[in-house]
């Protein structure tokens, strides 16, 4: 290495040092980007696995239920049961609820209407059991509305 450099050599030397520093920074930046790409790729693979598992579970569920979602069926049944109990203005036995549902033309998807109705009554927060097999609306305010209609 020369102690004295002329201007042209000095500029070239400084330029080379500056370029080498920028290259090193760029290399570090590119390495960081590659690590982030690798991390996101692994995360995407994990998400893809979860999506495939959920799709498989959904396909299995739809095959078992004949392609129908039970949540909408339960909501619809729950809404109808709520209306029946409200109009009755008193607690009703599940068999009476089933009879009234059938009178209104409700078609049960389940093979056992009594069990399906009991499941809805026991799992839906709008209803509470007052004695064996007999249910009313959970809220007294809602229950009292039925008395005045």
What does this protein look like?
By secondary structure, the chain is mostly helical. It folds into two domains: 1-67; 70-148, Orthogonal Bundle (Arc Repressor Mutant, subunit A). Helices cover 72% and strands 7% of the residues. It is built from five helices and three strands, in the order H-H-E-H-H-E-E-H. It has helices spanning 7-64, 70-88, 94-103, 113-123, 140-148, and strands at 92-93, 127-131, 134-137. Helix 2 (70-88) packs across helix 5 and helix 3 packs across helix 4. The chain is rod-shaped and about 90 Å long.
Number of domains: 2
Strand portion, in percent? 5-15%
Task: List low-pLDDT spans.
Answer: 1-6, 141-149
- Would you give the CATH topology of the largest domain? Arc Repressor Mutant, subunit A
**Helix-strand sequence:** HHEHHEEH
- C-alpha Rg (nearest Å): 35 Å
Mean pLDDT: 78
Helix percentage: over 70%
Instruction: For the largest sheet, list the strands in their spatial order.
Output: 1-3-2
Q: Which CATH first-tier class of the largest domain would you pick?
A: Mainly Alpha
Tell me the CATH architecture of the largest domain. Orthogonal Bundle
Q: For the terminal residues, how far apart are their CA atoms?
A: 104 Å
How many DSSP helices?
5
Number of separate strands: 3
Biggest pleated sheet: 3 strands, antiparallel
Tell me the overall shape: rod-shaped
Helix and strand composition category: mainly alpha
